Amino acid sequence: MAINEQNLPELVKEVRRQLGISQEDLARALGVSFATVNRWENGKSKPSKLAKAQLDSFCAKMIRQRKLLLAGSNR
After folding, report:
1. The domain that contains 31 carries what CATH number?
2. pLDDT, tens digit, 9 for 90 and up, residues 8-66
């Protein structure tokens, strides 16, 4: 699953909505701060390469566990 930076704020919101988790919960799962997730979701910053890889891995894991369904994910 490749993360499109243009749609990152929408992706973060949709991931949280489908999983029913807070920004703090997502931050904890990714090993980043709440403020970082908040800035991504509000379009104020973009994730580093490492954070992007962590988000990608997290989403892929949730998709495999059938907890998350994202457009364009064929898993």
Report:
1. 1.10.260.40
2. 999 999 999 999 999 999 999 999 999 999 999 999 999 999 999 999 999 999 999 99
Q: Of all helices (H) and strands (E), which one includes residue 9?
A: helix 8-19
Identify whether 40 is part of a domain: yes
What gap in Å lies between CA 4 and CA 6, rounded to an integer? 5
The C-alpha atoms of residue 67 and residue 46 are separated, in whole angstroms, by 25
pTM: 0.87
Distances (CA, A) of 28 to 22, 55, 72, 75: 10, 11, 26, 24
Q: What gap in Å lies between CA 30 and CA 72, rounded to an integer? A: 22
Residue numbers of the domain that contains 45: 7-64
